[in-house]
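Recap from last week: sequence in, structure out.
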Amino acid sequence: MDISFSTMFFHDSDLEEIFHAGNECGADTLEFWLETPDFWLNDLPLKKLQKAIEYYHPTCPLSVHAPVLDLNPCSINPDVRKVSVMWIERSIRLAEEIGASVCTIHPGRRTAKRSPTITDYKRLGNMLDVIEPLAESVQVKVAIENMEPAVNALLTLPEEMMTLLEGRPWLWFTFDVAHAMRHGVAISGAFLQIKERIANIHISGSAAERMHGLISQDRVTTTFLKDIQKSGYNNQLTLELNDLVLSKPLDYQEKVRVMKEEINWVRMNLQ
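Predicted structure tokens:
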């Protein structure tokens, strides 16, 4: 497996520092979030990103994560839906331009804090219909992510994901382990059975009070690494850590150290 980490862990760093961290941490590649502030808030400087990638020289292609903050392709507001889909398409094009292997997208959610209805799933289907021609025209794999259980969430169970994928052979799956672990180990294992369609796995600690925390501090998630290995999955494994749930704020060098330790921990537990 190729080991990656989400650039959002280095939320306050510039692109050069983020990609330098990739070298320092020993990651094979990175998952680049468009909403990484140094990129997102500076008019998406593609040449600067390409230069940083060239400097880093990853051993395998990057992956990309489409924007999700403030966006919702299943919104009841048609303008919000339109802008959300636009950014998904823009992310796919950027992923193709930088030679990424995967572009992860979110399914959206019901706007109201109520259980999703058939209308919400139809909106999800419409979003996928819109992006399908683009997704089929590029080399990058477009992969939809399972969500954590919430009253208005879509795609939280393996049955939902399998049904969606069966009807769309062009679509791939980004398996977020921390989200699935909210349902328990059995559900997480059921998601893993879709391994033929998994293009990326997001891994992080899933303790209730520390969502997307350190893997080394989560015994259940650490044990699940063996299940991933036994499944035969051999694509990217992305450490999606949230610096805000750690026990204290970290500066850049401390983040580099923590990420290096987590990558080493994952590799050790995959042996």
